[in-house]
Amino acid sequence: MTVVAAAPSLGPMNVAKDLLSLEEKRRLGAKSNVVGLLLVLHAWGLILGSMAFFAWWPNPFTFLLGVMVVGGRQLGLAILMHDAAHWRAYANRTVNDIVGEIIALPTSTSMAGYRNSHFAHHRELNSDNDPDWTRNIGLPEFEFPKPRPTVIGYILQYLSGLKIYSAVSGFHKNAETRDIPALINRARLIFFVALLIAAIAFGFWKQLLLYWVVPLLTVFLAIRYIRNVAEHYAVEHEHVLNESRTVLANPVELWLIAPWGLNYHLEHHLFPGIPCFRLAELHKILMTREPFPQIAHITHGYFTGLLRDCATAPRPDLKELLTG
């Protein structure tokens, strides 16, 4: 049974406005062209480096390692695209949107289409009008509570590719996501056709399949599922400070699942104008401001605390009874 949470009666901005001073908002919200460029180069450096490592020492271990690294950095590119969708990546909006569309290409998305639905997600968080919430209604992997082995089983299904159809079709079924400007749509089509022709003509189609498509349809989807659950599921849904979750995790989990501040999702919803690389600093400040430390849903660990939250989340029917 899935129950769609009611939209919060007190909007995030009404709560957030008193948590930071105007000067803090301006400082934390400042864009950095240099950091934006370095993050993109870092992601691509790891991707190309893992490919080169496998080419230099081809064996099953280096292949699996490379698939894991590429899948994780594909998520990293999606995070940077998300910042661009909020106009937070680069100071110049034209540069911001061009780079945002380019880094969205490897994950098959369009930043313009993503932006169309993403702002509705922020306005109508976890409600009937939230496209990110409604696309998962009826999917058993997003119904909680669930025993830890069951959640792990769903992660493995995404990791093995068994959930490719539902994951890909579910993301693109939203009409707003598909509403892409004609120029961008044509440019994307030209890019993908040219890439396919070049891969066949120059003989790198196997590398493209093994080191881009395979990670995208396995590791990327598995991490995206973990991220989706961590962001908005198995939380209280009683206040804007617990409609989303912050996950404090060890460096390995953060590197693989939540690079560049993705784990501070609650902070992002409170202050969407702050770039991802400053969310850790924002979290430290908010932990000193009431009522954030008392109400915020903060989980420790993805494979420990998050799985525990999934197993112990209140049953929707019981929660309805208790809240009247």
Characterize the structure shown.
This protein has 324 residues and is mostly helical. It has a domain of 145 residues. It has 19 helices and 2 strands. Helix 3 packs antiparallel against helix 4 and helix 4 crosses helix 6. The longest helix has 26 residues. It is globular and about 60 Å long. 37% of the residues are buried.
Reconstruct the topology from this structure:
Elements lengths: L11 H5 L5 H7 L4 H24 L3 H26 L7 H12 L6 H13 L7 H4 L13 H13 L3 H9 L2 H4 L3 H20 L3 H13 L1 H14 L12 E4 L2 H7 L7 H6 L8 H8 L5 H4 L1 E4 H12 L3 H8 L1
Parallel strand pairs: 1-2
Helix pairs in contact: 3-4, 4-5, 4-6, 4-12, 4-13, 8-13, 12-13
Overall outline: globular
The Cα radius of gyration reads 20 Å
Number of helices: 19
Helix fraction bin: 55-70%
Strand order of the largest sheet: 1-2
- Which class best fits the helix and strand makeup? mainly alpha
* Low-pLDDT residue spans: 1-10, 318-324
The end-to-end span amounts to 18 Å
Main beta sheet: 2 strands, parallel
Summarize model confidence as the mean pLDDT: 90
> From N to C, what is the helix and strand string?
HHHHHHHHHHHHHEHHHHEHH
* Number of DSSP E strands: 2
Tell me the strand percentage band: under 5%
